[in-house]
Design brief:
The complex is a heterodimer. Chain A is mostly helical. In chain A, 74% of the residues lie in helices and 1% in strands. Chain A contains 14 helices and two strands; from the N terminus they run ααααββαααααααααα. Chain A has a two-stranded antiparallel ribbon. By secondary structure, chain B is mainly α. Chain B is built from ten helices and no strands. The mean pLDDT of chain B is 90. Classes of the chains: A mainly alpha, B mainly alpha. At the A-B interface, helix 1, helix 2, helix 5, helix 6 and helix 7 of A face helix 1, helix 3, helix 4, helix 5 and helix 6 of B.
């Protein structure tokens, strides 16, 4: 039997026209630029970091000395600060975000849910530097005067809450990052929860489960890959977040167990020192930090995409 | 009622209320941010902000006229480069996909590029333009922002073109249109509302970016001297003013923050509510 008549087969049967060939080549060229730009980015990060890679080798990753005067560069304090602040952010934003996603998908009527989701997506549109501006003048004084002294008084026996209440530091950066990552968790998790078939809920309710038991024991496990995906997506955002973190982390390349202590992140040191860096090794060390950040986010984003794709590929119906 | 059932009902009510509380906290963050900016920004904003150059550190008065013009210049150039490239790449992904897997790899790489931190994109533009030209320039900033714009626009264009029903394509072909005529006169116009929405959201997003501009467009206390010279922009100005020790610079930072957020939110709301009525906007 002949191939069914679809747009593709009809077009394939037509004699090739010059216009079509030109159009295909033009759009193909622009699609290829996406590949080229990314290839140039990798080549550029690899090439510009060469002096630092040759001089320090892999010890760059676990050396904790950062001293432009002696030309000693190590990435550990920055990796530590980046990972710690992102982890703190997720600790706050995952429960809040997943909780909100449950409310928006399971409880709120469709109109209210859409309106609230719209507001939350606006939260994601606010520029990073505005978060930083607000954090400097509202969150930092709040942390310095109330929250950090309180933590020291009640939990000060733990190594995590020692030192001075400066207002700036890992904890403040984590709190600011958590607000910035919540919208990503909410909107992707909500999508995953909405993709759970109605029959799953009806079956659980029919067996006598309460609304919460249905949600927590049936709907959430069903959507778990999508929710994990949203968490990884938020993690990738948090790792690369620059302006807000730079403004509140304290900018001190030290590794401290205390969350109240000032620290530094990869993105923050590049933002602070790159435009003023002099000397080949100094500049290339900063580019190598960029390479580390690039690899971190590519890996985490890869995980996120695989998980989100797995939920949507299960063939569930979208509402 | 037995105890076990009572307990389950209590857990049910408590946990469901907690999810509502989570939503309340998340949404109230937006209103806190807007409220603070309106209060502090509104108090600080005056006519000088739009007409005057920044004053030297420590002096009061002045404005950010150069940064407003600089931002417009950098973002317009980025849009001029990024929008056509992203749009045409999106047309390829939606309409010209063949079985070679090339489209799939472009799609994958576009998503990857979209997830790369903006500061790393800044390093790319620095390596391409700032280092060889031995100087910061508005153009290098625009290139960085354009690279951020391309993957967003291409993926959204693709998505909206895919939502155009196939019957429209079949109708055009049945009337004898060639493929490119079908795309240019039927498919793209049918998806144009959504595509335009995606473009506006993309431009609004890059307009607020400071990180990739720090060492590409850099900053400037005076009027820009053309696209090959350091140029001021609102997001970078907010950053330098906010971290400065000067009271009056903080005031300027609030004013700039208010102007920036109003621009970003206005374009977002306009794009989502007015233009995209009935169109589902995918996430960037």
């Amino acid at each position: 039997m002949a191939a069914p008549l679809t747009v593709d087969t009809v077009v394939a049967k037509q004699p090739a026209q010059t216009g079509d060939i030109v159009a295909r080549l033009v759009v193909l060229f622009f699609a290829a630029t996406i590949l080229c730009v990314t290839a140039v980015l990798v080549w550029q990060l690899w090439g510009s970091s060469a002096p630092s890679r040759h001089q320090f080798g892999l010890t760059f990753l676990w050396s904790s000395e950062w001293n432009p005067n002696t030309q000693q560069f190590g990435a550990l304090p920055f990796i530590y600060g980046t990972v710690l602040t992102s982890a703190l952010a997720l600790l706050i934003s995952v429960p809040l975000g997943v909780g909100s996603a449950i409310f928006l998908s399971e409880l709120a009527p469709a109109g209210l849910s859409n309106a609230l989701t719209f507001l939350i997506e606006l939260l994601a549109a606010i520029p990073s530097v505005i978060y930083g501006l607000l954090a400097i003048f509202t969150v930092v004084p709040l942390m310095r005067s109330y929250i950090e002294p309180f933590l020291k008084d009640t939990l000060g026996f733990l190594p995590f809450f020692k030192g001075y209440a400066l207002g700036v530091g890992f904890l403040t950066a984590g709190v600011v990052l958590s607000i910035m990552t919540i919208p990503f968790i909410i909107s992707v998790s909500r999508e995953a929860l909405l993709a759970v078939p109605r029959e799953q809920r009806e079956a659980a309710l029919a067996l006598g489960a309460t609304r919460w038991e249905t949600t927590w024991q049936v709907v959430v496990p069903y959507a778990r890959l999508g929710i994990f995906g949203s968490v990884f997506l938020a993690l990738a955002r948090a790792l690369g977040e620059t302006m807000a973190v730079t403004m509140v982390i304290g900018n001190d390349p030290k590794i401290s167990a205390s969350l109240l202590a000032p620290g530094y992140s990869i993105a923050a040191i590049i933002a602070n020192e790159f435009s003023e860096a002099t000397g080949q090794v100094y500049i290339s060390a900063l580019v190598e930090l960029g390479l580390v950040l690039f690899l971190l986010t590519v890996i985490i984003n890869g995980f996120a995409r695989i998980m989100i794709m797995a939920t949507t590929k299960k063939g569930t119906k979208r509402t | 009622m037995n105890k076990r059932l009572l307990w389950r009902k209590i857990v049910n009510k408590v946990m469901l209320s907690l999810t509502g509380l989570c939503t309340l906290v998340a949404v109230s963050a937006l209103f806190f941010i807007l409220g603070y900016l309106l209060y502090y920004g509104g108090r600080s904003l005056d006519w000088n902000f739009f007409t005057q150059l920044p004053k030297p550190p420590g002096e009061t008065g002045g404005g950010m006229a150069n940064a407003i013009v600089g931002s417009a210049e950098i973002v317009a150039m980025a849009a001029l480069i990024g929008l056509p490239v992203g749009f045409l790449a999106g047309v390829y992904l939606a309409e010209f996909e063949d079985r070679t897997g090339f489209a799939a790899s472009v799609r994958y790489v576009a998503d990857l590029l979209n997830g790369i931190p903006s500061i790393v994109i800044g390093l790319l533009a620095w390596g391409l333009l700032v280092a060889p030209m031995k100087g910061f320039s508005a153009l290098s900033g625009s290139i960085a922002l354009a690279v951020m714009l391309i993957p967003v626009v291409s993926r959204q264009t693709e998505q909206f073109l895919r939502e155009v029903p196939n019957s429209l394509r079949e109708g055009a072909l049945a009337l004898g249109a060639s493929k490119w005529k079908m795309i240019a006169t039927v498919v793209v116009p049918a998806g144009s509302k959504g595509i335009l929405t995606g473009m506006i959201l993309g431009v609004a997003r890059i307009a607020g970016e400071a990180a990739p501009l720090l060492f590409t467009a850099f900053n400037n206390q005076f009027w820009g001297q053309g696209i090959t010279q350091p140029t001021a922009s609102l997001p970078v100005m907010i950053y330098t003013h906010a971290i400065s020790p000067f009271e009056d610079w903080h005031r300027q930072a609030w004013a700039a923050g208010l102007v920036l957020i109003l621009m970003v939110l206005f374009s977002n709301i306009a794009a989502r509510l007015v233009l995209a009525r009935g169109v589902s906007v995918p996430r960037a």
